[in-house]
Amino acid sequence: MMKVILKLDLADDKTKQKALKKVSGLFGLESISLDSKDKKLTVTGDIDPIDVVAKLRKICYTEIISVGPAKEPEKKKEEPKKEDPKKAAEDKKKAEEAAAQLLKAQQAYYQNLYYYHNHPPAAVAPAPAYPAYYQRSSEEDPNACVIS
């Protein structure tokens, strides 16, 4: 999760709308906020800051002010509940059995990783030779035109 703060050179509302539309189309975006007074755009999500800047520079001048991890709200630490030792042992035993079954299933199935084609190459007939050059003469064709 990244938090990117950008400084934009927004001239009017139309440019601002174009910038928001371009950024909102990015994959992995979680939130966008634009401070029009300071001309700062804050983008959070799983995004690449370079991609954001590349999209915005087609519209207006863009500077990266800061890039950093997005602050997640602090979660209250819950105390782990104490479980019965018998239940824990049963869960552990079931997990081991499931792992053993999975391993057994994988051992039974042999997947050939290499696919060899041991077929001889197909016999291809050679291409036909071009016909010999044939020049017509006026003696063979009495209607032929002769340019002298």
Automatic annotation (TrEMBL):
Q: Does the keyword Lipoprotein apply?
A: yes
Membrane disposition: Peripheral membrane protein
**Similarity section:** Belongs to the HIPP family.
Compartment list: Membrane
Q: Which GO terms describe its molecular function?
A: metal ion binding
Region (Disordered) location: 70-96
> Which Pfam family is one of those matched by this entry?
HMA
Q: Which PROSITE patterns match?
A: HMA_2 (PS50846)
- What does the record list as GO biological process? plant-type hypersensitive response
**Annotated protein name in UniProt:** HMA domain-containing protein
Q: Which UniProt keywords apply?
A: Lipoprotein, Metal-binding, Methylation, Prenylation
UniProt biased composition (Basic and acidic residues): 71-96
Cellular component, GO, one term: membrane
Query: Where does the source fall among the domains of life?
Result: Eukaryota
HMA domain residues are 1-67
